[in-house]
Amino acid sequence: MPFSEIRPDRRKISVLLFEAFSNHCLANTIEPFRAANTIAREPLYTWQYFSMDGGTVTSSSGLPVETSSWPQVRPRGDILFLMPSYGFRDLATPKLNQALRAARDRFQLIVGLDTGAWLMAMAGLLDGRRATIHWDEFTHFAETFPDIDVLEDRFVLTTDLATCGGASTAIELTLEMIKRQHSAMFSLEVGALFMHGDKLDLQDPYLRMSSDKLVGSATALMRRTIETPLTIPELADRLKIDQRELERHFQKEMKMPPLAVYKAIRLREARRLVELTRLSVAEIATRCGYRNASALTRAYRQEFSAPPRAHRSAHRP
Fold it and tell me: At 252, which CATH number?
């Protein structure tokens, strides 16, 4: 079963940690899944931490994490993250190689974070496949494993294997995984909690060549203009692109037209204000670009199946 087809009730994550792992990388990997659970208001993902021998594993910054031993891992799982760091070459023991080869039949997706691709390669998981690794190790990795198609990409995600270049790219990989399992809009909402995708660069000369960059700048502009929404022609003009071209890129990346994405962004900001503040519905309407409370309430009910006041009452402690 491809990773994108994992059933909603089976998104179980195992994280295999090694001494001196990157806490930054761990947080960038797990926090988006935690945020997805928060937004969905249900446990879409669960996770457990393991090490080969169990016990306390300490990050490079001194953060201790209690782990179960590898033999205690559930018989089967959905996603396995490998998270080594310094000294990763010494970790590729016959015992680990055997464990990773066995994991190939037990997990739908195996992910090598940071230098995790090296461990996957030593176990023979990446032969004839595409992969990437931390940029410091890129040349040595490509020379050591000529049978692997080594790419200078921030991450490589296929149906059953994934690799990424480091802590800063781990969040990009995780958001792409969420996008494939749920939707582009849901992934955008998760990313917004970490200000991911908020970069607005209207001078990028490559903007027109990349759908994800264009859509990223467009949605960043949308979030900056929630209170006074632009028309789609105005949005296209600000991005220096033809409106039809803009709509084509949105359909490719989001499977939604830009107007629908704009509306969804505004309504999710409205929901956040409903749940986390005591602002009146009229004030929230103004902040989210609606003419009045009635206009917001109609749109809100259509999107979330309940009006703002009922939603607020249901989520008050």
Answer: 1.10.10.60
In a domain, 189, yes or no: no
Count of other CB atoms within 10 angstroms of residue 1: 11
- Write the CB contacts of 149 (distance below 8 Å, at least 6 apart in sequence): 128, 129, 130, 131
CA atoms within 13 A on the CB side of 156: 20
Model confidence, pTM: 0.84
Domain shared by 136 and 261, yes or no? no
**Domain-located, residue 192:** no
Final residue before a domain boundary, out of 161, 184, 207: 184
How far is residue 163's CA from residue 143's CA, in Å, rounded to a whole number? 17
C-alpha–C-alpha distance, residues 167 and 237, integer Å: 35
What is the DSSP code (8-state) at residue 147? T
Contacts of 89 (CB under 8 A, 6+ apart): 118
The total number of structural domains that make up the chain:
2
Same-domain check for residues 132 and 272: no
Nearest to 252 by CA among 178, 193, 179, 202: 179
Residue pair 32/178 in contact by the 8 Å Cβ criterion: yes
State the residue range of the domain holding 294.
198-317
Local confidence pLDDT in tens for the 317 residues of the chain: 444 444 455 589 999 999 999 999 999 999 999 999 999 989 999 999 999 999 999 999 999 999 999 988 766 679 999 999 888 999 999 999 999 999 998 899 999 999 999 999 999 999 999 999 998 899 999 999 999 999 989 999 999 999 998 888 999 999 999 999 999 999 999 998 887 655 555 555 444 557 788 898 899 999 999 999 999 999 999 998 999 999 999 999 999 999 999 999 999 999 999 998 999 999 999 999 999 999 999 999 999 999 999 988 887 65
